[in-house]
Every structure is written in C-alpha cells, then in structure tokens.
Amino acid sequence: MLITCPKCETKARIATSWAITKETHEAYCQCQNLSCGVIFVTYTSVHRIIEPDGVSNEARSQASLKK
Questions:
Q1: Which of 5, 38, 55, 63 has the most other CB atoms within 10 Å of its CB?
Q2: What is the pLDDT of residue 60?
Q3: What is the separation of C-alpha 17 from the centre of its chain, rounded to a whole number of angstroms?
Q4: Running DSSP on this structure, what letter comes out for residue 37?
Q5: From CA 11, how far away is CA 56, in angstroms rounded?
Q6: What is the pLDDT of residues 2-25, one digit of tens each?
Q7: What pLDDT score does 12 carry?
Q8: What span, in angstroms and rounded, lies between the C-alpha atoms of 21 and 43?
C-alpha cells in the first residue's frame, strides 16, 4: 500500500504501527520529502470481505489440528 503525505503528496513511510482491534490498525507515518518531513497518523481497517474463502472457522481449526 502506498502512503502519500497529506501536505506535499509525496511518498511517506510507516515508521511504526499497532493493532487497535482485530480489524483496525493505527500507524505513525513520516513524509520522505526532506523539505517537508511531516509526521502523521493513519488508520486502516477492514470494511467488508469481498470474497470469503468458504472455509468455516471449525473446519479451519480441524485442519490445523491434523497437521
């Protein structure tokens, strides 16, 4: 995923991130443009699953136990 600086619109890097919930993460990002250098926070989260894998959690658990 490409993160862009909200100020100068150049590339930014994720400096650190952590899970807030199972579906949501917070990340501190830093602009790579040396004359800008803005540090900002982003949130990413799962909005919806478009293509489920069709495997139930129970079947997945049983398959992992057989390994």
A1: 5
A2: 64
A3: 8
A4: -
A5: 39
A6: 899 999 999 999 999 999 999 999
A7: 97
A8: 11
Distance CA 27, CA 19 (A): 9
Q: What is the pLDDT of residue 50?
A: 82
Cα 54 to chain center, whole Å? 23
Q: State both tokens at 64.
A: 């992992």
Residue for token pair 């057989």 = 66
**In degrees rounded to 5, what are phi and psi of residue 4?**
-115, 150
User: Is the whole model's pTM more than 0.70, yes or no?
Assistant: no
E strands, the chain, where?
A: 3-4, 11-19, 24-31, 39-45
Structure tokens at 34: 């040396």
Cα–Cα distances in Å, from 24 out to 32, 46, 52? 24, 7, 19
